[in-house]
Amino acid sequence: MIKVLKNTDADYWSRLKQGDADALGYLYDQYVDKLFESALRKTDDREFAKDLVQEVFIEIWNYRHGITEVQYSFSYLTKVLQGILLKKLKKNNRLVYTELQESFASPEEDIESILISRDIDQEKRTKLINALSKLSDRQKQVVELHFVKGFSYDQIAAKLRINYQSVNNLAFRSILRLRSLMYNIFF
To answer: Per the confidence metrics, is the pTM higher than 0.85?
Structure first.
């Protein structure tokens, strides 16, 4: 017997097409991190990557009435990201377009690969949250400011009113601690 998997996002896409902003919020929450990672791999510019991801969801909202049935949400969102990125890069002449096009995931990616990828991502996220909870409050603050908000060590030092070397030491110890706590994710 062949088991058919239901697209759990289908209801949200349908609600989005009808103008439900909460449905967009759900899709944003589900895919923003993976889209950001994908954009960052393509651009190596955190701020540019953040802008791209925001534009994906703005474009989806603006053109929601024309969205056809979406079977693989992440693949669809990646294609939208790719289109926005290519448009911007073409405008700015920043990259070779064919290399970029080849590096994005294909929407024909099979459901099993998508599910396995989701499971692995969820496991990593859970272990990261657990590992972060074991850091000191100051270490958590430095990690959030640097890796989530994109602050430089100089900016963190100014914000926390501590010297640059203290920030550098905190970040270094935090990364070492996280690596030791999460080592088994990768090996």
So the answer is: no
